[in-house]
Design a protein that fits this description.
mainly beta, 5-stranded antiparallel beta sheet, globular
Length: 99
């Protein structure tokens, strides 16, 4: 598995992906749109505080498509990769929502 991770990292660097130089961190949900009364999967608009060692804290706006029962909650902390060189680039572990 480590070889696959190494290959993915090399590919990110080769293609200029902003996540090539990212570090492990977290995002805290600052705000989340409300789910509609019906719908199996819905888009949730989010404002997140991204934090990681060696990176200035930053507020990032993004969205995720999820089930209403797994809706992100204000104050929830999720694991994420945070780009060192591109302030708005994050890769959140959305599986941590419990989908």
């Amino acid at each position: 598995m480590a070889e696959l991770d190494d290959f993915a990292h090399a590919l990110e660097k080769l293609t200029g992906d902003p996540m090539a130089e990212s570090v492990a961190g977290t995002v805290t949900v600052l705000s989340a749109s409300e789910p509609a009364p019906r719908g199996r999967f819905q888009e949730c608009a989010l404002e997140l505080l991204a934090e990681a060692p060696g990176v200035d804290e930053r507020i990032v706006q993004t969205a995720v498509v999820t089930r209403p029962q797994s809706w992100p909650q204000v104050g929830q902390v999720l694991p994420a990769r945070v780009s060192v060189s591109h302030p708005g680039a994050i890769d959140v572990d959305w599986d941590a929502l419990g989908q």
